[in-house]
Specification:
Layout: H1 2-8, H2 18-47, H3 60-65, H4 74-88, H5 94-120, H6 128-149, E1 157-159, E2 167-169, H7 174-192, H8 198-217, H9 234-254, H10 263-281, H11 284-290, H12 292-311, H13 321-327, H14 332-351
Helix pairs in contact: 2-4, 2-9, 4-5, 4-9, 4-10, 5-6, 5-10, 6-7, 6-10, 7-10, 7-12, 8-9, 8-10, 8-14, 10-11, 11-12, 11-14
Length: 357
């Protein structure tokens, strides 16, 4: 929207650049998040008298410290992020609308799950089969539209990070692969959302990397980094900046001791958006590196389930793995900060893929 306003007012060109609108997006989203955060928390408190149900098989300290805390805080992240995207991005860009619709659909899916948890006071609400059906259906639609909007010679290619100009043509196998990337990222971030500030902080690191990736892919400098240029992806950098601003604002209220939980409303949508952006920019494998903590959380659950079915014993003291470290005696803050540090290191490792010789 801003680009139309700047053009109408004949504002200097530097106001309408991706960089300028990206900076604006961060602060607009942050301001919206901070302005409406307390009001949303009061509203959720009023309508969630018992707060989010806490797992009885989880860390016992959570039953004391987290009881009564409302969920659905993802509304604040998605609301401020989407509103900022409508204000700061070029709305004629197809990728922007795909990203917004992914946020909305996955956000609604998470909202329904959170609503059922709160009203029924159970940690297990929407069935896994129903949730996966909605995720993969949405992912299929997103992948088909993204593929249509991608240059034909790159449509089904899988780029290998750190190896310049090396890509594998997956042909039609790329579509189910990309669907798994989007749905898998959604569930991985969802599993990571179990401690105050954990998912939000790690998501900031991941979105910062993909903001840079999207900016490079969508501008003329892509060739200097030997990266596949994706004509429409530049605007996604502005959207990422807005999401980062909303996450920083949310973290203000979610830092220990959290006033509100992100819930599935936020975590499912944020993970899906990360996966979608990875598909848009052709950096799907890099997402597994940058989001290594998310991957570790998901793998820990799979290992726990497999090992328990195989032996009747637990491989970890508790899964996802952040609870395992709590059971080892780490405080919640120690787990969160150390996982943030790992996430930051992985983000830097991911950015080194841009290095040229």
């Amino acid at each position: 929207m801003l680009n139309y306003i700047f053009n109408y007012l004949s504002a200097p060109d530097y106001f309408n650049t991706l960089t300028a609108r990206g900076v604006m997006a961060f602060f607009v989203s942050l301001l919206i998040s901070l302005s409406f955060g307390e009001r949303l928390i009061d509203f959720l408190h009023h309508h969630q008298s018992k707060g989010q149900p806490i797992r009885e098989d989880g860390p016992q300290s959570h039953l004391l410290t987290k009881k009564g805390t409302p969920t659905m805080g993802g509304i604040l992240i998605l609301g401020s992020g989407i509103l900022t995207a409508l204000i700061c991005t070029n709305l004629s860009n197809l990728f922007v609308w795909i990203a917004i619709l992914v946020l909305i659909i996955f956000g609604i899916t998470g909202f329904v799950d959170d609503y059922m948890k709160v009203t029924k006071q159970t940690a297990n609400a929407m069935t896994a089969r129903m949730k996966l059906l909605l995720q993969f259906t949405t992912a299929l639609a997103a992948v088909l539209v993204i593929s249509y909007a991608t240059p034909e010679d790159q449509r089904y290619s899988l780029n290998i990070p750190y190896l310049k100009n090396v890509a594998i043509n997956l042909c039609w196998f790329y579509i189910p692969f990309a669907m798994v990337v989007i749905a898998g990222a959604s569930n991985a971030v969802n599993l990571n959302d179990g401690l105050d500030g954990l998912a939000a902080g790690l998501s900031i690191c991941a979105f910062m990397v993909f903001m840079i990736i999207a900016y490079i892919c969508g501008t003329d400098i892509a060739r200097y980094f030997y990266i596949t240029p994706i004509p429409q992806s530049g605007e996604i950098a502005v959207l990422c900046s807005g999401i980062i601003g909303s996450l920083v604002g949310f973290l203000w209220f979610n830092a220990p001791k959290a006033k509100v939980f992100m819930g599935d409303t936020g975590s499912l949508a944020l993970g899906a958006l990360l996966g979608t952006i990875a598909v848009m920019t052709k950096h799907e494998i890099l997402l597994a590196i940058v989001g290594g903590v998310f991957v570790m959380e998901a793998v820990s659950v799979m290992i726990q389930v497999f090992w328990f079915k195989k032996t009747g014993k637990r491989f970890f003291k508790m899964a996802p793995i952040h609870h395992h470290f709590e059971q080892l005696g780490w405080s919640e803050v120690n787990v969160v900060v150390r996982f943030w540090i790992i996430g930051f290191i992985l983000a830097v490792i991911g950015l080194t893929s841009l290095m040229t010789i």
